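User: We ran a pulldown and think these components assemble together. Before we commit to crystallization trials, I'd like a predicted model of the whole complex to look at. Sequences follow.
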Amino acid sequence: MKFPLLDDWAWKMAWRESRATGKRLFLFVSSITLGVAALVAIGSFGQNLERAVQEQAKSLLGADLVITNRQLFSEETEALFRSWGGEQSREARLASMVYFPESDGSRLVEIRALEGDFPYYGELVTLPAEAAQRFREGPYALVDERMMLQFEVEVGDPVKIGVFQFTVAGKLQRIPGETMTETLVAPRVYIPLSYLSRTDLVQFGSRVSYRNAFRFGPMTEVEQLLEEAEPHMETQRLRSVTVEDRQRRLGRSMENLYRFLSLVGFIALVLGGIGVASAIHIHIKQKLNTVAILRCLGASAGQASTIYLIQAALMSLAGAAVGVLLGIGLQALMPPVLSNFLPVVISFEVSWGAVGQGLAMGLGIGLLFAVLPLLTVRRISPLLALRFSYEQEDSLPREPLRWLVYGLIVAAICLFAVSRTQSWTQGLAFAGGTLAVFLLLVAVASLITVLVKRYFPDSWSYVWRQGLANLYRPNNQTIVVMLALGLGTFLITTLFLIQSTLLNAVSLAGSGDRPDMVLFDIQSDQREEILQIVRSLDLPTQQDVPIVTMRLASVNGRTVQEISEEPERGRRDWALFREYRSTYRESLIDSEELLAGEWYGRVGSPSDKIRISLEQGIARDLGVSPGDQLVFDVQGRPVETEVGSIRKVDWERMQTNFFVVFPVGVLEDAPQFHVLMTQVRSAETSAQLQRTVVQQFPNVSTIDMALVLETVDAVLDNITFVIRTMALFSIITGLVVLVGAVISSRYQRIRESVLLRTLGASRIQIRKIMAIEYLFLGFFAAVTGLFLAILSSWALSYFFFETEFIMELQPVVIVLCVVVGLTMLIGAVSSRGLTNRPPLESLRAEV
Amino acid sequence: MSGLRHFASVKVPIRAQHEDGILLMEKPVLEVKELTRTYRSGERTLTVLDSVSLTLNPGSSCAVVGPSGSGKTTLLGLCAGLDRPTSGSVLLDGVLLDPLDEDQLAAVRSESVGFVFQTFQLIPTLTALENVVVPIELRAETRVRSRARELLDQVGLGDRLNHYPSQLSGGEQQRVSLARAFINQPKILFADEPTGNLDAETSERVTELLFELNAAAATTLVLVTHDLELAQRTQRIVELKKGTIHSDQDLLLKSKDLAL
Ligand SMILES: Nc1ncnc2c1ncn2[C@@H]1O[C@H](COP(=O)(O)OP(=O)(O)OP(=O)(O)O)[C@@H](O)[C@H]1O
Ligand SMILES: [Mg+2]
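Assistant: Here's a predicted model for the assembly, 1107 residues in total across the polymer chains.
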């Protein structure tokens, strides 16, 4: 016997057979189109992104090498820099308030005082363009474009930073290597370094970091320079950033974005696959008789199945090809949407790799899912041609091989997920999760059909009963449609609910009598006056917290240097070397909870042990527990302490929280600054307070929580927009599957609706029956998806975000209405022709 | 009628014309031995055919009659290898069907069997011409269309080649299926109530055609029918009752069986 695929008879038959049903089949297979479109768009975009990161690698950093330090570079360091040569730029960064006199507004920003020609690669994009150069030559500032918009500031307007007034030289539009989202909380303002001292901002306690950027000649080996300088860098606590570091870090975060997107695309594709399976299934059911006749006439089982395999393959290929075109179009839309999140400029270019991959995936998934129903073809008995009536349509022969196909499908899904996440555990977890959601949806869907059958409302009117009964009658599409629609509903609703829960958690911070305004970097001698200003505005002082900066010197007698040299698990260097901003007070506050040891609020006499309290996370990273000895270097003076207690801290509270809390009676005389919290409630009071404070005490910064909330909201909105777009894909796929299902089941329904009409049913009644069927279908699908969404959002809030789950009714109701409405609309549109044709024509055309 | 003669002349030589000096004796084209078919429904077993034996020689014709439910269709299905007997054996055109797998059975049908069904069973998505060529296309033969056209001409549908079954009347559909049944020059033709769905006049026309084509191609004919008049036109009437052969009547004394 010949290999069936080489049999040109099968090809001929496949072609002839598809003349009549091709349109219908294609509609079905187009559910694959959207999945392929998503994959191609994402894949192609991903490659463009990768290429952009490669090509623009140096502009990510703007230099060949950047050395950063938390304080001024020492003399030795400066000498080292001189010995390195090349072109150099110096930059000082600090957080500060700016004040716009014209619009009387102020806001916390990141000041960047620059000297030299940085950036060496890429450019500061400004409006006007020459401002990027001009601001370096006088008392000028470049100001973040969006902030200028917010405060209605124009180029040429004054801006007050500290005690000095600058002129806005230009709008800052883009900084190489930085994304818009990074600058949301603290917009950037560039000034010349030579004017920094005039602002009077650099005082004790202000956190200024310094950066030195280098451009070397082509012969310089950056890695080698760093290696030679390593001992010096370590003792001076200098950090270095090379182009490669930047690229790696960026690559990782882009990778995550890319993986996430392609996984969502994959869900759409799998949904499409299910659509295909159901299409072929229905198709085959209608071809039972044809297959039986062919078998009578001497076709082998292989030849018969090959006909439909060929059809499935060609249709999948066509669906995938359309998907590729759609994907390329879609990809063109992605850079503008995502540009806010990307530090590089992406150009549009079709990636042929992604196109090939999309075609292959579409064809593969299409075939894999088509094989499942095709297996039954092998089992169709030729006897059917003689006695069709004896064989129940529903009891299609069950093929034991189908378990193999199920296995293959699961394996393919797992393999894809693993290859995309490039991690076995993550990939399998994702595949498992997807599978679990699918199974849950199927379970709920079949439960609903069983329940409907069991508790059928016999007292309803005929039209309603008929519509409802269509859900479980032979050839129903209930499970497939519910799976597709349910999954889309589930994804979108989960996103909505999680977003509102998170936003709620953040905005809770500013409600009730919680503080909504923070003033920080207050010097000890400014404290009284500022308290006075606050009181004069009739505002409460809710917290008044002293802060002392210090570093860890030794743990249990061993210096931090010694500890960091022996690599030991569970201990992180950042905990050893970080700058601790600690406070002292007598009692715990309500965001804290004692976990171990005992709370010591006060030190009686100078000879007493100083027992401090550590936050649980930092205690774990340091590997210490109550009783361990810590020595802190408080601005040059060693302070010996013992760990007295371990605390748990609720970091989400809008409060000043600390890793280390000292008892009262130790640090009072140490150099310190203060943080003050109050509740302003209205935007006007907020503006008034900020204005007064900024003008009198330029070094003091304020954060208005309302403003932060707004920006957090904006970021979340942006992110969820991307995710929603992807979820939309699965919804649309669901609807395409629905259209296919409706159109194919309409062929099942032709006979009975013709019969009903012959028996005297009006067209209105028949339309009503269908509308009711789709009403129930949409309703059950939406309810299933919503149920699972609420469940998973609750679980995510509780276990992952550890916050109270807020159940918002509004989005749930909206989603319910939209899904049901869409289902009914599509049902009505695609079964339109059914009731308009005269019965005889329908009967004859029945194919 | 030249077309028909042409068919008759390309008759494949019968395989078993050798051995033991009985060279002249033609081997039977169908030999059914002790055929039993039971169905199981739950606890009960239903015996639909009970050790039926039957032998048909090449070129002969035979009608199977009997009340509804007596097992006629079942017998036909078993003879054509569409179903498997519970016990007993079928020898079709010299091939023992029992040990064959499904695909081998299909090959035997493609080689030696033609079908005419009560409900016509044309493939709805193919035109009349395409329906007729299916059996020979399956054998990967060439020049198929001209032969199909000739046959369709003979059944009077030469001008309806490209019409779909839904565009043809019942009688026309059955004539297409007659053309299809003869196109692979079958050794044996099974017809299950070929006129059951047709009115008397159309019936007559189809019956004429059936016997005409059959005679010309010298095909063995097995005809299941309720129509006694139709049955009378064959050489032999086998009557089934409750799954067994109730009577077996030779209508043609000078039939080949007896002549040898
Ligand atoms: N798959 C099956 N399962 C159970 N019983 C069956 C099955 N197929 C056929 N039968 C039974 O076998 C018996 C014979 O059926 P068959 O179709 O051979 O009768 P028939 O003689 O062709 O009748 P008719 O003249 O009405 O076509 C019937 O009683 C029928 O119910
Ligand atoms: Mg019968």
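Residues 1-63+252-426 of chain A form one domain. That may be worth checking against your pulldown data before setting up trials.

User: Thanks, that helps.
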